[in-house]
Structures are given as structure tokens and as C-alpha cells.
Amino acid sequence: MYQQMIFVNLAVSDLDAAKKFFTELGFTINQQFTDETASAVVVSDTIILMPMTKEKYAGFTKKSIIDSTTSSEVLLCLSAESREKVDELVEKAIAAGGTETGEPQDHGFMYGRAFDDLDGHTFEIAWMDPSAIEG
Predict the structure, then answer these.
(1) CB distance 16 to 22 below 8 Å
(2) 35 falls in which pLDDT band (50, 70, 90)?
(3) 59 pairs with which residues across the strands?
């Protein structure tokens, strides 16, 4: 059965540093789609982060590339299987050089935290109690 995938392209200032950051979070690099200008960071079977040099990124758009440390282009939210996994991933990001952004959000049935990567891209990590979802 076909599963739709998402490839998230991210303009980065240092590709090697970005690859190191994301592998320290526990993600893997698909070497088949990695070169000196871009990398394929495997988050899951259907989610691939594509950090790429700003020059490479510019080849995909006619728009100017923002400074993601001072402007926001998108908020990326990844689900986690538990509250503990939310904390674990955010703590790994901080240890790898990322910065926590905002305060933890605890709504009882839903819990989340956020971090910025080395280039200022914001990642929200969220857990939701499956019993809170109406089916």
C-alpha cells in the first residue's frame, strides 16, 4: 500500500554540523541521497529532513531565503509516543547544541516542548493521550 511521504527541505549554514546535530538526536543519514550539498535525515519511514546548503536550497525557489534565527518560516511538529519521549528528544537537542524555545505546554491529555536547531528552525515535539482522541 502506498504511504505518502514528506520531505522537509531546510536551508542550513553548515551541512556537516546539521548532520551531526540530527544524528545526535537519534536520526540516521541515508547516504544514497547525501552529498556535499544536501543530506537525507531519516526521521521515520515517511518523514525525511533534507538539510541543504543555502546555495542548493536557492535552486528550488525564486524567493529569498530568510534568516531562520530571526524569522519564522514554518513550525515543524513531530509526535512522540510518550511524555518521557518528548523530554528525551528535547534534552538530546539541547545537548547537541540546540536551544529550547518557549515553555513546556502541559494540558494533561497533551504535552509538548520545542527546540530550535543550529540554524534556528523550530521543532515542536508533542505527545497526546490516545484515549483523548475521539474515534
Answers:
(1) no
(2) very high
(3) none
- Residue 135's pLDDT band (cuts 50, 70, 90): low
- With beta carbons less than 8 A apart as the criterion, state whether 109 and 42 touch: no
pTM of the model: 0.91
* In contact, 104 and 112? CB cutoff 8 Å: yes
pLDDT for the residue 91 = 98
Q: Which of 66, 43, 51, 55 lies closest to 18, judged by CA?
A: 51
How many residues are present in the chain? 135
Question: Distance between CA atoms of 74 and 63, rounded to whole angstroms?
Answer: 15
Q: Is a pLDDT exceeding 90 seen at residue 9?
A: yes
User: Would you say 123 and 114 are in contact if contact means Cβ atoms under 8 Å apart?
Assistant: yes
CA-wise closest residue to 15 among 56, 44, 71, 48: 56
Burial of 46 (0-12, 13-18, 19+ CB in 10 A): exposed
For the chain, the maximum distance between any two Cα atoms, rounded to a whole number of angstroms, is 46
